[in-house]
UniProtKB/TrEMBL annotation:
Organism: Irena cyanogastra
Alphabetized Gene3D superfamilies for the sequence: Isochorismatase-like
Annotated family: Belongs to the isochorismatase family.
Domain Isochorismatase-like: 112-260
Matches recorded under InterPro entries: Isochorismatase-like_dom, Isochorismatase-like_sf, Isochorismatase_domain
PANTHER family membership: HYDROLASE, ISOCHORISMATASE DOMAIN-CONTAINING PROTEIN 1
Protein name per its UniProtKB record: Isochorismatase domain-containing protein 1
Taxonomy of the source species: Eukaryota, Metazoa, Chordata, Craniata, Vertebrata
């Protein structure tokens, strides 16, 4: 891993001056936050080593990062000051820097989670092409079960809007959660993600594109996760709202794609043991509805 340098000299000897004792530090990365400790007087290099020991299986060694410190004076994170040494309890985070667009978009089952957003009964008469996105969403969830991919489902105010439609089989979902917040990024969802090692990519679909899908996607990329929105499995009441939301999200670096592209990218090879079953899912495609012509 090449980390952005805050002024410390890599390989320049120990960062810990003489003395003993340790200092509690909260180490934050992506959606995770883990308390630990470092020796009193630890510097930049020991902080990096601690991040690697805590999150090594989740850190892409080809990316560049910067270490930031939470500054009480400003009530926000700042880049780690030059020559910083840990002398008191603090909170630090590892932030990935922008990477080349050509490295984005790789999906593997072991680092992917599916998010199914608010596919509920009361939306049926209001959402354009709702029957089609239900069909595609169900196919995605079948693919997730075949490939062992965790699924997180939310329902927006189910007391008033009903539960997830019966056509969508939630068997094996890791979490089915009611919400009132538009974004799916709730504390319970963050906790569920923290239980899944190596999460890097979220495949997101449901309703509405310009509200819950958009707000969820923006929160997820703000936490350093890669987001794939399934265009043929997301819709809104208005096609104009849907179109402008997808355009806006694509400009932020979110990947707007299709269910077939997602499923075939996850198997990656005709020799994959689940390829035939995934291929059969794809063959049972939804009828042409005009939905994708509205992207």
């Amino acid at each position: 891993m090449a980390a952005a340098e805050p002024g410390a000299t890599p390989g320049g000897g120990s960062c810990v001056p003489a003395g003993g004792g340790s200092v509690p530090v909260l180490f934050c990365f992506s959606v995770f936050a883990r308390p630990s400790s470092v020796p009193h007087g630890a510097g930049y290099e020991l902080l990096i080593q601690k991040f690697l020991s805590l999150y090594g299986d989740q850190i892409d060694m080809h990316r560049k990062f910067v270490v930031q410190l939470f500054a009480e004076e400003w009530s926000q994170y700042i880049d780690l000051p030059k020559g910083f040494l840990v002398n008191e309890r603090c909170k630090v985070r590892l932030v990935p820097l922008q990477i080349q667009i050509t490295t984005l978009g790789n999906l593997t089952p072991s680092s992917t989670v599916f998010f199914c957003c608010d596919m509920q009964e009361r939306f049926r008469p209001a959402i354009k092409y709702f029957g089609d996105i239900i069909s595609v969403g169900q196919r995605l969830l079948q693919g997730a079960r075949l490939l062992g991919i965790p699924v997180i489902v939310t329902e927006q105010y189910p007391k008033g809007l009903g539960s997830t439609v019966q056509e969508i089989d939630l068997t094996g979902a890791k979490l089915v959660l009611p919400k009132t917040k538009f974004s799916m990024v709730l504390p319970e969802v963050e906790a569920a993600l923290a239980e899944i090692p190596g999460v890097r990519s979220i495949v997101l679909f449901g309703v509405e594109t310009h509200v819950c899908i958009q707000q969820t996607a923006l929160e997820l990329i703000g936490r350093g996760l890669e987001v794939h929105i399934v265009a043929d499995a997301t819709s809104s009441r208005s096609m104009m709202d849907r179109m402008f939301a997808l355009e806006r999200l694509a400009r932020t670096g979110i990947i707007v794609t299709t269910s077939e592209a997602i499923l075939l990218q996850l198997v990656a090879d005709k020799e994959h043991p689940k390829f035939k079953e995934i291929q059969n899912l794809i063959k049972a495609s939804a009828p042409e509805s005009g939905l994708l012509s509205k992207v």
